[in-house]
Design goal:
The complex is a heterodimer. Chain A is built from eight helices and no strands. Chain A is mainly α. In chain A, α6 packs across α8 (159-176) and α7 (148-154) crosses α8. The termini of chain A are far apart. By secondary structure, chain B is an alpha+beta fold. Chain B has two domains: 22-54, no CATH class; 61-247, no CATH class. Helix content of chain B is 34%, strand content 35%. In chain B, the strands form two sheets. In chain B, strands 2-1-4-3-10-9 form a six-stranded antiparallel beta sheet. A four-stranded antiparallel beta sheet of chain B has the order 5-6-7-8, with no helix packed on it. In chain B, β9 (227-234) and β10 form a beta hairpin. In chain B, α4 (56-85) runs antiparallel to α5. Classes of the chains: A mainly alpha, B alpha+beta. At the A-B interface, α2, α3, α4, α5 and α6 of A face α1, α2, β6 and β7 of B.
Chain lengths: 181, 251
Amino acid sequence: MDEITAVKASQASNRDDFGVLIDQHYKNIYRFAYHCTGNHQDADDICQETFLRAFDRIGQLKNHDSFREWIFKIASNLSKKHIKKIRLNKNFTEKSGSSGNLYENNDILPLENLTQKEKASFIRQQLQEMSERLRMVTVLVLMEGLAQKEASKILNRSEPSISRDLNEAKQWLQSRLRNLK
Amino acid sequence: MDTNKKDELNDILKEAHEKIQPRDSWQALRNRIDERINNKNTSSGLITKLNGNISFWRRAALAAAACLVITSALLICVIFDNKHQSNFPYKDNLLAQNQLENLSEAFSHVQDLFEQNCPWMIISAAGKGELGDENQKIIAADNKKLIVLRLAVNIPNENNAPQYFDVVTFENQLVTFDMPVTGDTNMNLTLKSAIVKNNMIEVEIYTQLNSGVPTNNIVTIANDSFKTLARVKANGSWININATGQSLSNI
């Protein structure tokens, strides 16, 4: 069943067909949420909450061919809220001694002689040090393969600003990864 | 970055992305999503920190807790509506002593049932309510002290009358909710209240319009008059958020 048919069927209150949409996107939403939060438990919660909200509001989706954009927008909004909440808590409870890195594993590995798997781990760590604005653009466009236009709609920003951020993100990564062979 | 380097970077980025998976398994996550959807009547929008192993009785307790909160929300709604219609003087206490006691009792039960989660609620003068909870492990809210805030939000071009909201929250608890402003504009508000000297309430407020830049402010408010918490510019007009508030006795 294609996505548009599954969206229409879900809007007709067919729960099984909504399952098709979950199957198609839940891994991507989880990965996106993980990059945003740097934490498996939070990514898990956001992923569940994203699909729960989508299920509740699927009737409001007018463009049947934009489910992916829509579900990422929900995940993006939930992730932003979560990040803001974490920052607020840090303001109140961790006035000092925090690096601001939410990532679970803070060990920085030497780049030389890293395996591909280790490089991947290093990349994930480096992404957590990126600003939230650049990180979301990087994950959506470079990792998820979404078009800049889609990313601009998901993040409620103009295409030129997405393009600027993408260039900035690439330069940032270039500076961090210049030791990679 | 030359082409080879760029390709390698793209490959590594994609690989880093694809290596991410839940701690247990994809299938376990898939099952948890199904479970959330199947049980949405008891957990939708209310619980964000429950894991997949939650028992039936815990769910039942949470449903009971939600009922209690709703009951107290309705209580406030009725009180608020009566006072609002009679143009009650804002120098009066927000709620009478017996109403405060009822609220404290309801939240005490709710807090017991929620265990480590602290519930909060917001109710508008229009009768709309929203419930939420925070995980105490994360926020270290003081689950013994309740605070009632009354917000008056002046949104231009909407018959110029302020919109009123009552927020019931534990001290140091984060309360986050969305408020439609004009057209497609949505304002996200986060409040954190604390009791300071002379039983005054200090409120930290974060506001964010759509996905714009968030702004924050810390204001000590009075319990007998409204004070400006924040001014936000939306579509060329200013939105004023004013507040008054009082603390409840320990629960």
